[in-house]
Amino acid sequence: LLRLELGDRCYRFACSSCPYIYNVLCAMEQTKYPQLKEIDDILGGEDAWKNAATTEERCPECSHMQCYFVQMQTRSADEPMTTKYRCAKCAFVWKD
């Protein structure tokens, strides 16, 4: 790892384990962003809706009256199940 130190006329990078020195004569900036990993949809993605039951519930986006729904236990056992709906027309997803 190079450390930054003040030299005679400029800053410089110096190695602590060998005699390497690099004089910094102008401003330097380097930005490196980490590569993001692909993650799986924890709720099953598109496959979760393949065998979902249908019901008549109004979509808040397009007002269509048919949607798919799945129920899952997302909180503790003494709490009611969470119902997720998906519009059959516009595929908007909401929960109740």
Automatic annotation (TrEMBL):
GO MF: DNA-directed RNA polymerase activity; nucleic acid binding; zinc ion binding
CDD domains the UniProt entry points to: Zn-ribbon_RPC11 (cd10509)
UniProt keyword annotation of Nucleotide-binding present: no
Query: An example Gene Ontology cellular component term from the record?
Result: RNA polymerase III complex
Q: Tell me if Translocase is a UniProt keyword of this record.
A: no
Keywords in alphabetical order: DNA-directed RNA polymerase, Metal-binding, Nucleus, Transcription, Zinc, Zinc-finger
Top-level taxon of origin: Eukaryota
InterPro entries given in the database record: Rpa12/Rpb9/Rpc10/TFS (IPR012164), Zn_ribbon_RPC11_C (IPR034014), Znf_TFIIS (IPR001222)
Q: Where in the cell is it found?
A: Nucleus
Which residues of this UniProt protein bind Zn(2+) 2? Answer: C59, C62, C87, C90
The positions annotated for binding Zn(2+) 1 are C15, C18
Q: Which GO terms describe its biological process?
A: termination of RNA polymerase III transcription
Per the UniProt record, one Pfam family is Zn_ribbon_TFIIS
Q: What is its main location?
A: nucleus
* Domain called TFIIS-type: residue spans: 55-95
Q: What is this protein called?
A: TFIIS-type domain-containing protein
